[in-house]
Each structure stands twice: as C-alpha cells, then as structure tokens.
Design brief:
The protein has about 270 residues and is an alpha/beta fold. The chain is elongated, with a radius of gyration of 20 Å. It is about 35% helix and about 20% strand. The termini are far apart. Helix 2 crosses helix 3 and helix 8 packs across helix 11.
Length: about 270
C-alpha cells in the first residue's frame, strides 16, 4: 500500500465541495472513521458495500481494516479520488458510478456483505426500508449506517417512546437495532444543522407467516394517524379490525402502545 495524502488535500485537489443536492456531508476525522469501520467486527477479507463514499474517508478506514469494498457513488466528481484510493489498495476497491436506489446491489456480491455507509441524508431511510424488505434472511450480514440522530432514534425506539413508529417496527420485527455511537455535527464538513448517530442492525429469523407488504401497510395506516384510536386509523385496511379482536388488542388503543410483536401478530392475522 502506498502512502495516502491527507483527505483534505485530496478534496482540495479535486474541488470536492459537499453537494447539498446530493445530501453530502464529509467526515475527515480518521479516528472516528476507524471506530465506525470497527462496529461490524473483524472485516479482514470481508465483502463490504458502501453507499455514497464521496471522497473516500470511510472507504479508507474500511480498506485499512482489510475489507474488500464495493462503493456506489453517484457524484462523478468523486470518481477520480476514489480511483486514486483503489490504486493504493490494489484489488480491494470496486467503484460503481450510479444511483444506489436504482442499482441491484445483491447481484454485486458472491457472499453476504456488510453494509457500512455514511448515507446521503436524502435517501438514507428509503435505502434502509428497501434493505429491510428484502427476502429473509437477507442478502446482507449487517448494516452499520450513519443517520441524522432523530432518524436513528426512530429506528431503535421502543413502545410508548415519542420516536416509536413505523420505522421502528419495520426495523425491529426481524432484526436487532442499536445506536452504536453518537456523532457530533462538528465532525462533518460542512457541519449539518442536526446531530448524527451510527446505527447497527443484525438480522434475526423473521416470524413465520408475516407478509412485509401487509406489515408496511398496517404500520403506515396506524402511525399515519397516530393520535387516533386504532379503530379509526386502521378502518381502511381490510380485515384489520377483525384481526385486532382475534389477537386480543383493544381497538381503542393507539398505535404507539402496540409492541413490535403486536404488529407482527396483527399482520399475520390480517394475512
């Protein structure tokens, strides 16, 4: 491996100011990036998917940890900087220029990769829901993802928490989700207006007989009108009110009082 120039120097050389339109916020602190790369565990020889590497700060940390990285980058300004990184780690970095929302990521891997990304803020939640809706057990081993702190709290929230909602249920019904570390806004260039956090998800066996599309519809309806009783918020979902009665949940409850297990039981009963 050749000696790499400082990341700030690479950004200056290629004129890589962060794009607000692409939801970019760059991280320069290599100690922090190493900590993020360590969250999934030992990555020596492991396949890793990184979405939105930008100038390659996290990519450096992943490569240094021994990972074989496939990076999807939409911003073509960043491609030369990533190519330079690939030269420093021969055969360890594959860069795909394109939109992560449109690329068939599972087809890129022989085995099950870890997903490790400082996600672009404007597509992070949509990407996660897509990865959670994959056939189960999923095509990935774990997800280590940077989100705005509020989104991270929504992913890991428990029943009756202010942050508890659709995203918590979709994440937790068949995976464990935890906040691995908070990240202060000052760590980014440019600093976003909000704090961030790294979330780590590992897949669990899914409860049998639960259809993801049904669960998604139920949680969308229930939390879309979260201040209303379930008999009101779920009346547009065929079979939902009868299913509530069958699983012993009062229709006078509100969505935030139902546990993840309640929602999966409801989805199973609706069928």
């Amino acid at each position: 491996m050749t000696e790499l120039p400082p990341l700030r120097e690479v950004i200056a050389r290629y004129g890589l100011n962060a794009s607000k339109a692409l939801g970019q916020n760059f991280l320069f602190d290599m100690q922090l990036l190493k900590r993020i790369a360590a969250v999934p565990g030992d990555l020596r020889g492991a396949e890793v998917l990184e979405v939105g590497p930008g100038p390659g700060g996290l990519t450096r940390a992943l490569l240094a940890a021994g990972a074989r990285v496939t990076a999807i980058e939409r911003d073509r300004r960043c491609i030369p900087a990533l190519a330079e990184l690939g030269e420093a780690y021969p055969g360890m970095l594959r860069v795909i220029e394109g939109d992560a929302m449109a690329i068939d990521a599972p087809s890129l891997f022989e085995g099950k990769p870890h997903i490790v990304s400082n996600l672009p803020y404007n597509i992070g939640t949509a990407l996660l829901v897509g990865w959670l809706s994959a056939p189960w057990l999923p095509w990935w081993q774990s997800c280590t993802l940077m989100f705005q702190k509020e989104v991270a709290e929504r992913i890991v929230a428990k029943t009756n928490d202010d942050h508890y909602g659709r995203l918590a249920v979709l994440a937790q019904w068949r995976s464990t989700a935890r906040i691995a570390m908070p990240v202060h806004r000052s760590a980014f260039t440019p600093p976003p207006k909000v704090m961030s956090a790294v979330v780590h998800l590992t897949p669990l066996e899914a409860p049998e007989g639960v259809n993801f599309a049904v669960l998604e519809r139920l949680t969308g309806a229930a939390f879309g009108q979260r201040r209303k009783m379930l008999r009101q918020s779920l009346k547009g979902v065929p079979g939902a009110l009868n299913a509530l009665e069958r699983i012993g949940v009062e229709s006078t409850q509100r969505a935030e009082t139902l546990s993840v297990a309640d929602f999966t039981a409801l989805a199973k009963a609706v069928g």
